[in-house]
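USER:
Working in pairs, take the chain set out below, taking as long as you need, and write a paragraph about the fold.
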Amino acid sequence: MTTSHYIAGRWVEGQGSDCISVNDPALGQPFAELMAASVAQVDQAVAAARSALPAWKNTSASERATFLRGFAKQLGQRREALITLQMRNNGKPRHEAEIDLDDAIATFGYYAELAEQLPSKNRDVPLAAPGFTARTRLEPVGVVGLIVPWNFPLVTSAWKLAPALAAGCTVVLKPSEVTPLIEQAYGQLADALGLPAGVLNIVNGKAETGAALSNHNGLDKLSFTGSNSVGSQVMRSASAQCRPVTLELGGKSAIVVFDDCDIDQAVEWIVAGISWNAGQMCSATSRLLVQDGIADALLPRLQAALENLRVGNPLTEEVDMGPLTSQAQWLKVASYFATAREEGLQCLAGGKALDRDGWFVSPTLYADVPKDSRLWTEEIFGPVLCARRFATEEQAIAEANDSRFGLVATVCSADLERAERVADALEVGHVWINSVQAVFVETSWGGTKGSGIGRELGPWGLSAYQSVKHVTRCLG
């Protein structure tokens, strides 16, 4: 894995100072290494994207759609290899890795269709004033830097890459150093499809590489998904250049369960919201608000369900939940277990790292967690669920909204009128009613407050990579 960077249509060896060790989190052992890109190689990647931009943005929408459908088809043809790599490098159970791949395929297919539906470059604009005509053009924003996280590699890249290419942008993609290998598939697919050199560039590396890309004055836009701490640095870089930025950041999302809800269904939705991807999701519904009338019956059932989850190596066992993806994340989650003990929280399930090889922790449930607890207010990014009781609908809404984040929420109730009313009152970007977290490419993704800026997916995802130009002409 020495030729780990895809620049100007060629695979090149890394020339940076960092050696990236790629680990199997179920074993806690490395299985591959690659050298990071140097700052000079980031410059080369941006220059290649800049050079390729004029020709690519002037290709027809149907031609770009053909390439996007090619990406979707090629991903499907590499199905088993990509699923296995997701399992090995991320620790995802097979069913989760399969959904990830299907999501990426659907994203490329969807934006192929949207590309074909793009209006002609010129559209007349009616004016009230006589003596003038006006037209509007939708143009690609230009060269974009895409920085993606380790919890959903392949998927998050597809969410950015597909609309960017559909709009006519050229890109430099920087994967996470924790999960760099699966993003290499996009470079391989570009080769197989004959994508023009420089339209897609991939540079791997750690913080130095990410900073070199986000600070680069050759970019026209940045799109970042990741932590709030790094996101704020990316935003500072963008502000220095006065260029647009899309940020999809953290969350501390609520799941609200009313006392008319079916307990078995509620337990299913709650468990899925905290255990999927071992809780390593910005959308994890890690704050459980349960109404007084159902709490005493629900919490023991939830405790049993979490304790019965099968946790293990997805490559060798039939599991419901795999390990945390990195040792750093494992140590972070373990530190919250220690904080919970210091705070004297009531632990109904889990609350510990598992005594086995790899970076495993137990699915965890704390009850009656105070609102000022760090575990209630901070994003943990692990399978750690905190529960509180509420009495009224108004109290539930107030406590759900009492967060510096605003990404998603879930509402569980047999009273659909109430569920819809609560959904409308929640200060978040996406709400599920009586459902697991089903994400569809046609809907938007993004949040309010500290959860980020802008939207991905749906037509909003395409708009994020388009610039609007108006041309006004005097007829006199």
